[in-house]
């Protein structure tokens, strides 16, 4: 009798324990599923903390990004200013970890060769159409340094040419070395820039901003002029100073004028003191850029 009663109690205890363990397991599983559901249902804004990673605060691209927030009624969003280098560093980190990120972007840029990216559609047309990169010189350069003027006036290339130089620099090559290597690999194109240009011995001073495309282009044209006997002086400045230096004659030229939108304010201020030689590159694009793995296609999706 005692033995049977003991066995019966033991059986009850074991069944009770099984029920408790099963309940705990169900709660843990449910909790895990709940967390997963919370993560997968988070909006794009929540995933990136409603932040768009920007570049230099004075850039026209930043003004357009702020305008996009207004036009698309993205009241909770912000565009964080920084620099081109900081933007690409944040993009690389997020991309390597397959995390969501939204950045202000433009083409040509080496990031499109290194990462699988896409522009968000802009149905309201806030970022406008394709832009051009212009060459701008100080008045009187043609008379003072005619050979250099001829090269600058004939300087024209394609986005893929520029991206080749940018990628060399991004992969660790010194900008001067990258420019020299690219020039040696593209003699036929470079000869179209130097055709009819007389050799010289004067100094040509360039102003440029610390954007990877402008650094690449300035170093390339500088190397070409040096091959004709000119000395060059490259001065890295802020965007406004890039134009002001050429306008007041303390610099001779710049080859990184993004027009008509990005540098519109600077041309409005200094344009009548400059000589615009026209575009050296066509087919640029501005907009908001995300990794291709993100499930988003339009700026409107940010709402």
UniProtKB/TrEMBL annotation:
Keywords: Cell membrane, Membrane, Signal, Transport. Residues 1-22 form the signal peptide. GO terms for molecular function: amine transmembrane transporter activity; carnitine transmembrane transporter activity. InterPro entries: ABC_Gly_betaine_transp_sub-bd. It is found in: Cell membrane. One of its GO terms (cellular component) is ATP-binding cassette (ABC) transporter complex. GO terms for biological process: choline transport; glycine betaine transport. Residues 43-184, 203-303 form the ABC-type glycine betaine transport system substrate-binding domain. It comes from the Bacteria. This is Glycine/betaine ABC transporter.
């Amino acid at each position: 009798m005692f033995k049977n009663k003991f066995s019966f109690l033991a059986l009850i205890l074991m069944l009770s324990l099984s029920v408790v363990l099963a309940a705990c397991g169900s709660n843990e599983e449910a909790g895990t599923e709940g967390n997963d559901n919370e993560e997968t249902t988070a909006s794009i804004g929540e995933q990136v903390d409603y932040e768009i990673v920007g570049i230099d605060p004075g850039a026209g691209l930043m003004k357009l990004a702020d305008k996009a927030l207004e036009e698309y009624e993205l009241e909770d969003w912000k565009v964080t200013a920084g620099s081109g280098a900081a933007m690409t560093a944040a993009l690389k980190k997020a991309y390597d970890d397959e995390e969501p990120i939204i950045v202000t972007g433009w083409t040509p840029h080496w990031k499109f060769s290194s990462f699988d990216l896409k522009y968000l559609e802009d149905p309201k047309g806030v970022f406008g159409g394709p832009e051009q990169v212009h060459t701008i010189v100080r008045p009187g350069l043609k008379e003072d340094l005619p050979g250099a003027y001829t090269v600058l006036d004939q300087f024209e290339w394609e986005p893929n040419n520029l991206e080749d130089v940018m990628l060399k620099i991004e992969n660790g090559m010194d900008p001067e070395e990258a420019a020299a290597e690219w020039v040696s690999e593209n003699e036929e194109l470079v000869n179209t820039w130097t055709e009819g240009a007389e050799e010289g011995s004067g100094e040509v001073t360039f102003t440029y901003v610390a954007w990877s495309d402008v650094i690449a282009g300035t170093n390339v044209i500088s190397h070409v002029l040096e091959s004709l006997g000119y000395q060059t002086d490259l001065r890295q400045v802020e965007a406004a100073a890039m134009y002001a230096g050429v306008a007041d004659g303390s610099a001779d030229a710049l080859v990184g004028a993004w027009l008509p939108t990005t540098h519109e304010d600077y041309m409005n201020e200094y344009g009548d003191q400059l000589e615009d030689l026209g575009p050296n590159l066509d087919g640029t694009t501005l907009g908001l850029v995300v990794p291709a793995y993100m499930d988003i296609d339009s700026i409107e999706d940010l709402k």
